[in-house]
Amino acid sequence: MKHRIHISSPMTRNVFGTPARRMIARFPRRAFTVIELVMVVGVLSTLLAIVLPTIKTVRNAVQRRQAMAEATALAQAAIRYKTEYGFWPGQLESKNEAEGTVRLRDEFKTDSMISGIISRYENASFTVTTTGTAPVYIDENRVYQAFRQVGDKSGTAFKSNPLNPKGLHFLDLKNEGNVNDVSFPDPWGHEYILIMGLNPRTLFTHTVTIEGGNFPSYTVSVSNTIAFAFSLGPGGNLSTNYIYSAGVQ
User: Fold this and answer.
1) b/e per residue, 140-154, with b = 16+ CB within 10 A?
2) Strands, DSSP E only, in 5-163?
C-alpha cells in the first residue's frame, strides 16, 4: 500500500492550524516611542558626563608624565653633549659649512665664567638667581641645531652636522632635516626650557604674570645638578605649575 506524503507551505498554516499571515497581523512589529528614545539619550548623557572627566584626568596625567620624561631626556642630552664635545649645546655655531668647522658664539666670548645658559621661551616670565655674571639667554632652536644628526642638505643627501660631528643620537627631534624648524615640543606643542651650566647651588625662581593679577614667585631647588629642563605645562604662558625634569625639587 502506497502512502502519500503531503507537504504544506509554512506560510499557509502554523502548527496550531492558524494561517501565518493572520498571526503576523495579530503581532505587528513595534517601534521605539519618543519617550523611550528620550530615556535612552538621557542614560547615555549621564554615562558620558561620568566617563568624560575621568578620561580627561587620565589623559592629563599621562601627558604630565610624558612631559617630565622628555624634560629629563633633554637635560641628560645636554649633559651628554657637554661630555662629548666640551661645550653646551648652543654655545657653538658653524664657521664654515663646507669645511665643517665651528666657532664659539660671540655671546660666550667673555673673560669671566658664565653663570648659566637659558634657552629663551617667548613671553615666559622667569628668572635665574646666580652668582657672578648674569646668565646668557639663547634661542631654544640653537640647542636642537646642535643635537641634529645631520647637517644642511646638499644635492639629494644630507651632510654631516659640524655641531655634532660624531652623528650621535641625543633626542627624537621634530623636523630634524630643517635647521630652521628643528624642535622638541612638549605634549601641548610648547618648547621646553633648558637651563645649563649651573653652579650646583644656583636657585631657580619664576614669577608668573597673568592678565588680571600677579602670582607669587616660586623657588625651586636644583642642588647638585648642572642642567635641568621644564615644561610650562598645558597652560603655556598662563601656567602656574611647571613640570620639571627628574632631580629638581
Assistant:
1) bbbbbbbbbbbbeee
2) 92-96, 101-104, 117-120, 127-129, 136-139, 150-154, 157-160
Q: Would you state the pLDDT for residue 169?
A: 94
Q: DSSP 3-state helix, strand, coil percentages of the chain (rounded to 5)?
A: 30, 25, 45
Cβ–Cβ under 8 Å, residues 179 and 142:
no
Q: How far apart are the first and last CA of the chain?
A: 104
Enter the DSSP assignment of 236.
G
Query: C-alpha grid cell for residue 27?
Result: 503581532
**Per-residue pLDDT tens digits for 102-145:** 999 988 887 656 778 888 766 556 666 666 667 888 988 999 99
For the chain, domain boundaries: 67-244
Give me the mean pLDDT over the 216-244 stretch: 78
Which secondary structure element, helix H or strand E, spans residue 207, and what is its range? strand 203-210
Of the candidates 94, 91, 96, 122, the residue with the CA atom closest to the CA atom of residue 107: 91
User: Residue-wise over 171-204: b if at least 16 C-beta within 10 A, else e?
Assistant: bebeebeebeebbbebbeebbbbbbbbbeeebeb
Contact between 141 and 172 under an 8 Å Cβ cutoff? The reply is no
**What order do you get walking across the sheet with 117-120 strand by strand?**
136-139, 117-120, 193-196, 227-231, 243-244
DSSP line for 82-127: HHHHSS-TTSEEEEETTTTEEEE-GGG--SSPPS-EEEE-TT---E
